[in-house]
Design goal:
Length: 745
Amino acid sequence: MENLQEMLAAIRGLPSAEYASERSGLPSAEHASERFDKRALVQLHEMFARSHANVGAEPGVALCMSVAEPSAPSVALRGLRSIRVRDLRVGRTHRGRVLYGTLCVNPFKISGVMTLLEDDHGFAVRVAIYNVAQAASLSCIYPQGAKVAIKEPYFKRALDGSLAVRVENPDNLQRVADFPAEIREPVVAAVDLEEERSKGNECFRKQDWHGAVIHYTNCINAARLEINDAAARNRILLAYSNRAETRLQLGEFERALEDCNEGLGIKPGHIKTLYRKGRALHGLTNYDQACEVLQNALELCPWRPEIEAALHLSKALSAQSRRGKYDISDFLLGRRPPAEVADFVGDLEIKMTKDSRGRGLFATKNINTGELFLVSNAVAVALPDDRAVMSLQFDHRGNINTSSQENLVAAVIDAANKSQKLLPRLYALDDGSAQACASVPAMELFQTDTNCQETKVPVDVNRIRDIIVRNAFGGAVQTYTDRITAAAEKLASNEGFSGLWLLPSFINHSCLPNTTRLDVGNAMFLHASKPIKKGEEISICYFDTLVPFPQREVICQAWGFKCNCKRCRLENFLKPSLRHLHAQFEALHDKALEETNAAKTAGEEFPADLPKSAEFAEVYEKLEQTLAKFRKMKEEEKNWVRASFVSAYWAGIQSNEFFPKTLEDPIPSGDEILQAVVSTVPGDVRTFVMAAKQVEGLKHWVGSEGWAVQYSATQARDACIRVFGNHGEHVIQALISAHAQCAMF
């Protein structure tokens, strides 16, 4: 179904397009759009909006615009010639032209933001704006009555036959009052300066940041005519300062800094503006400069608690960025949400891999187990509150959910439109081009407090989309079953979100990783899960690797690469010998999982009567019998294979029937299984859960004393450090107690 109204009708039994038009007396969307009939288009828009409100944002419900024309980078308004609605040509991107008009309806969003624009001749056109960040308030960004400019408009026919302007990059649709110099609009002397400032203040109180920017800008432009008047200069100062605050609220730190500098040029010691400049520098991660400005403000006006708090935070983050010392214990123990943290880059370098896989991240000194070597805040994230829409979702083959990917694209574009400092860093990531893969960016580009050369790099939507496809991370790496127990999930990660991180994007995958990733809010913490030697490549798991080789191979293919680690080479060699076990694993895994979950729901105590789990565990018994035939295989290599089938063992130990039939049956002990997984994926949270359970189990049966308890406690402590990094002893013990309550399978 290509028509929007027909899709809505199919989903909720609403009237079709023709029927709706007949009942309302309106022409079809196609006819109304071809005549640029404002009245009819407004009524159709409102009808669509009501239908959408009834349906909700369900997948596939959208103004179907077919395939978008390749997106051109956003260009400056200066030099573009205006074009009227009636002069738009179907199927054309109007290069060098700009469409001015007024938004004449309240917007609504399906896959794109839908609105209407009326030009100064009274003709209207539908506008579909894509890649708009989810967090944005549409009524504030695209309010009815706002004057806008659409740069180089792309005019096309949608699948329902109607005509519309498609805006691929939201930065190509700009509120005119934001850029008075570029559009060369004359300043109207009759503007009441105090009234404009009051309107700006009212918008500010309502948290209508975009509206506040409009009115403060009008005030600044009009006041320039009276620049020699002391009262007018004071109004300009206050307008610059207040506009800086609105831009801080919008996350536009570079523009906020510009406004602060303009205001301080009028009155260098203005306290509020100094305070706001310090916060703008903080937002740009220029922590040392922020400290200088905030210290200056505090000396001019002591006992201002908000300035003291901002200075304290900037000092703390400056220290974090230099020393790499963080206290995240309250977050790990579930006591409070994650606090803001600074980026930290340890002794690392980007260089080409020796086996021609492209670029990678390498250690420039030895790194000990548990040592933190990289903290990176996300460029943009899709948050778990909107998980069904926002998070990068992968199916069992590792394919990325397209709709969620597009929402992340929107969030990254939003961040890029706000920061020229970001774009050179963003464009250093792999976008699939030969040039990107062959170039090695300098590490200084990614250092905090580095004054990157800010060039006017255009925001290229298609290039950003390619970067996200190749570099985006989902939430914390999920297990094969997409389930980590609720307690571990709460403690170990803020699972559910997806996002784009800069330096971590250079880290390659390995099924024998040496690094653990920990998500703390929007920041990614990376520490060594085993000793890393100087010159060794940093590696992580892109997905759950505690599964047999065929499953890993399929997921790697979906990601577009082949893992050539020692473990994969070994299991590829063993593939013919293990083929029957691979098939049984695939057939029994989900059945055993369903049985175990049903037992948990019923409140059964483990071990329980779980025949499917016991049958699944037989796969592990057969694996041991097969491995015994390879007498020349090293024990470490056997452990890699055991780790691939470990979920069969974990399922089996929850069943009453999982016992060797004779003393000679080759069933490894729990400690041997733990060592097998640790030698393969040392930072996997399930190794910690298993170790913690062993400690609590031994304490229950033999008490707190004895060598066995001490040995298990040491194993659990080591596992905690591999998973969560180095922390105080009280934190480690609290984490051990919490994870002992988690389920393995």
